[in-house]
Structures
1.
Amino acid sequence: MRKINLIILCFLASLLPFMASAQIDGEVIKPRSGKFLLTNATIVTVTNGTMENASLLIENGKIQGIGTDLSAEGAEEIDCTGHYIYPGMFDSGTKLGMVEINSVQETVDHTELGSVTPNMQALTTINPNAVAIPVTRVSGVTTTLAVPGGGIFSGTAALINLNGYTPDQMYAGFKGIVMNYPSSARRSTWDRRSDEDIKKDAEKAIKNINEVWQRAKTYNEIQSAEGELEYYPEMEQLAKAVTGELPLLIEVNAANDILEALKWLEDKENVKVILTGVAEGWRVADKIAEAGYPVITGPMLSIPTRGSDRYDIAYTNPSKLLEAGVKVAIRTNDTENVRNLPFNAGFAAAYGMGKEEALKAVTIVPAEIFGVSDNLGSLEDGKSATLFVADGDPFETKTQIKHVFIDGYRVPMSNRHIQLYQEFLERDPGLEKHSK
Amino acid sequence: MKKIIYAIAALMCWNAVEAQTDKGSVLIKNATVLTVTNGTLEDTDILVENGVIRSIGQGLSAGSNVTTVDAAGKYVMPGIIDAHSHIGLDVVNEATSPITSEVWMGDVVDPYDIGIYRALAGGTTISHAMHGSANAIGGQNVTLKHRYGTHDPENLFMKEAPRTIKFALGENPTRVHGRGNNIQPRTRMGVEAVIRNGFNEALQYKKRWEDYEQASKQRNSKAIAPKYDSRLQTLVDILDGDIIIHCHSYRADEIYMLIQVCKEFDITNIVFSHVNEGFKVAPELAEYTMGASVFADWWAYKFEVYYSTAFNAAILNENGVLTSINSDSGELIRHLYHEAAKTQRYGGLSDDEALALITINPAKQLGIGDMVGSIEEGKQADLVIFDNHPLSVYAIPQMTFVDGVKYFDISEDKDDQRLRVNPTELVEPIFLKEHDHKCMHDLDFLYTETENLFNLHNH
């Protein structure tokens, strides 16, 4: 009897692939948790080398074992012969989930009014059902830093995993206050201010920043002395950057501004600094290395900031920073095309960084920068099962991503782009009113 | 006296020769040659003489005055062709009327644009320098060969290329004219009406001229010529099949609309550009048009591209639509080989199919498919040498040739490739974000209400 049951089960299991492609009205594939054993894979742990023909066990959301002699008892086995397992990739700076359609203002929720709004919480504005989220995660990008924009102190960025029904379920354990360091560069080619005006604006902004910063310091001093404070949510939040309770993510790009920012930071002892953007970092890489601050840079796929720059300078910037001794993570700074993160890393790799370092720049390095490397960023026992399976090098353009797990959840390898492909590849009827 | 005349005549001839653009000769040895139209040839030589591919084969030799490039272990592909670009242009939009077919981008070509060199460094040798998308019927475009280094805009023109014109549907013309200036079109119905009215007026105009020409053949004719109108004459040229339409479009409904209008006016020379929802009307695009020129993966930056798929190129290709991948960007034009490779991730195209998207297919859409777009004997010698297969993310262009002349060499070129420095510029400006070279360039005033500078695509 048992045997017959088994045979029926095997038969049903063999039908699964067909059932998955058949049309079932109202069918929805949901992310699901469970016990999974990924077998016969090449496992790229990032921190402990690469293991051939090995297995990885996922249970209770965690990696419960990596090795060659793991038991599959009660686990759903996924054969990964010829495939590779990597830790989920981090995009260390995006607007993913904070906006649905960029030109439709009603859907743009990343930039609040005002220039000092550190209390604006990125996590609040994350839409777990943004259409771009499943579009992104099937590329193996599992974790993104959601960064609010605008003003001087824009708000508080949050690290999220790209699965979950609520922002709290997505939250991946890091928050940081965003500061846009006043720029002496033009915002874009249609910023028509004169050189003098730009300089004046920057000076004014620095004066303003110093006043605001002093206010936050005073707020903190009164708070520490248990003095009486009026409700002042902006300072309440900014004080956390002053004391180092929350890191300060400083967006700064032009070489001169980077130097100015480093000078500004000299007497800010307790501040935990992360530099972001850093497009012209290569010009002052030694100074950044000397200061010892980590850098989140990108996108690589952007044009040089100056007409006189070598054509490939944006591609080589991360490798030049790394060479100088800077800790470098990579971002796309994108919204709907965060899926291009691996290609940005690929360009960085080709233009001097090398594959191994580029892989670190989207896995363990950002995990360390964000202080979550005990849980994310590499494949190790006890870490979160946030990983993906690919049929090749994940940076290589033609590589197919086969499976993605986020916090132990196996997420569907589908999204609107794939559904439209399935729906429209072969139209019926084609050209005529009725198919023949 | 005669001698002097000969001398002058000789001098004039010499001048005439000088006015021609440079043509080079080169022998590329031992390369993996990606011909695109005839497969991949291993360990093969390409002999270029005077700007033309003379022969492809093994063990080729050339005169001692011809440079030889050893390309062992390297890949050679045809120069990349971008069917939708705005680099090398001073201005992009003449946004003063829903129809501006009288203007021509050849009048605003800027040979000093560093973007041309950056494109060459990414293997792109030809770009279709287009009018913007503000108007339902925009200006005429110009096809450029990236002969960077010239100070004369005309040296960049690919003079053999046929005339083309920009059309635009959807949000851009309705925003600029309908909502911006309170004139038709404000809707996609209005866009159809503007185009239809334009064609019908052109037919009337054509008839006036035909009537006049008929009448003036009569003896003692007192017929007076109609007033010449370059706007309507251009539309007549479209109806006569002398100009290829390249139409900015996104949604399936508007694409279908213009296909219907073109069928009605017997227009077959039409390429749809961007075409994010082209996948929904692939059979119609395959049957009635010169195809689609698409983005590899751009979407969601505006409402009309919300229902997009990165599989668009694959669906179109699979349905027999002549498909190309374009940049519409001074950034993307530097790595169209990578954009083409995305069709292998999203839809599994073969190497030849993917490479065709940025070579022979855009060449056909620009009407220059018999001259460029593949490595074939007799074709113009626009070639790129890569260190890796160009569809690999790790590929780095090494040399780029236009007409057999080397315009980019990774090992020799200096870092600063500007042809001139603005004399009034004391400090070189730093731009943190590139907003140039796009369809809606020159229309930034329409976005002043938008404080959001982040990632603003307006293509």
2.
Amino acid sequence: MHTYTLKELATGLRARHYSSRELVRHFLDRIAQHNPALNAFITLTEEVALAQAEAADARLARGEGHWLTGVPIAHKDIFCTLGIRTSCGSKMLDNFLAPYDATVVAKCQQVGMPLLGKLNMDEFAMGSSNETSFYGPVKNPWNLACVPGGSSGGSAAAVAAGLTPAATGTDTGGSIRQPAALCGITGLKPTYGRVSRWGMIAFASSLDQGGPMARSAEDCALLLQVMAGFDEKDSTSVDVPVPDYIAGLNQSLMGMRIGLPKEFFDQLDSAMARALEEAIAEYRKLGAEIIEISLPNINLSVPAYYVIAPCECSSNLARYDGVRYGYRCQNPKDLKDLYLRTRAEGFGAEVKRRILIGTYALSAGYYDAYYLKAQKIRRLIAEDFKRAFETVDVLLGPTTPTPAFKLGEKLGDPVAMYLSDIFTIAVNLAGLPAMSIPAGFLDGKPVGMQLIGNYFEEGKLLNVAHQYQRVTDWHRKLPPGFA
Amino acid sequence: MALSVEEVTRIAYLARIGIGSEEAARYVKDLSDILAFVAQMNAVDTSEVEPMAHPLDLPQRLREDAVTEHNKRELFQSIAPQVEAGLYLVPKVIE
């Protein structure tokens, strides 16, 4: 059952091949067996999952329910879950029992998707390798010596290894797409404002966006259908109707214009480029027109991001003061000591680094040189995309410069780690939707292909991804050892 | 752009993160590397460019000024490090 897609699982539930309870039990057993090697979960919610499964079975027996009723899911530990620890991968929130559910969590619950547990992640979603987690690194199921990517590394590893049929992730600079690529799964970062950020612990508020991570584009469509929509509790949620993502999957790609940003390919390793060329050839066969385009300012995206994201993080993370919730240092001698030591002891090295960069860039006298400059570059990048979408429907390129790298390889060099998101970051700055889908292997490690769409065109992206997955089977491959 | 130990110490204090002198030395290198990297932004002339604050350039929504939330003090205080009589406790501030 762990090799099935969401659609196959849902069909099996309706045909009474198994109950939701049996399905949940199966995945809980898989987790017990394989999680020790992967460290993908921070918290297991066995009792909650079984109770929700029974409720789902009752709904299905009455002939009620939604398509995904009874199909289990696991959430990245950045989404608040009422009464369940929501750590955000940090010692700061190790004891934090969220007092409410995130909108995304509530929506999955309303549909009747049992919650298997909370997934490991880089601390406060700051990292590209899942090595900054307070709960230790996650391992890549395709090669246990390699990172799963980050920050949604637990989500990607758990889906790839068949510990959950689907997961949620969040993407601030590539945190859904990069781990999806490195673990060989399908992940979608929606348009900024498409999925509610209510109850999603904030890192960089103008960039953060939650989205689905699963085995296929079809599965991501099913899950996005549940997650997406206007939420008045999120002031940046956009009130645009949610289309029927499933209905659009089977449109022909005849005449679809796919753009290749030349800057992405100019700097790409030749083995990665070869894998993508095969995918491009498939798209030609499907009737798409391939057009080279240019995004001239794309190389400025990583520098601009590493000003904007740390600035917003330094402001967002000011709330962790040891007073209202979360970690507090022992025996503070005065209030100043309480703040200084709580934050020194509660945050890990990468989070502190980013808070310090952001504090510096926003400090008196530096605002114009850093934050304002980065926001101007942000507009240049968004305009590059706008021009591109005047001539093409979607963009295609690599998700990452290389397949999964070794644990520890980039941990000591922040800038080298930042550059592993070189192809994903611009999308967040512009606020566009984008996906990563499996497109082959290099040395036994998955290669991800990125598809970027225009604002609110998730449906078109899913269509383009699904048509590729109909004629290829990279997305059905399972890591040896987890089959 | 290289920072000094004094600057790093001052920034850490502004961010209310206690750091020792050894840690400060390490952050001098890390932060200087990051600032040198982001300095690539200066290669472009942006004097005519409007800064972009919101990805969709949308204004913030407004709503009726009506009460929509209810007090959940007990629930919120149940996860606080130290409370007494409905108040959050911190070390004494005024002697």
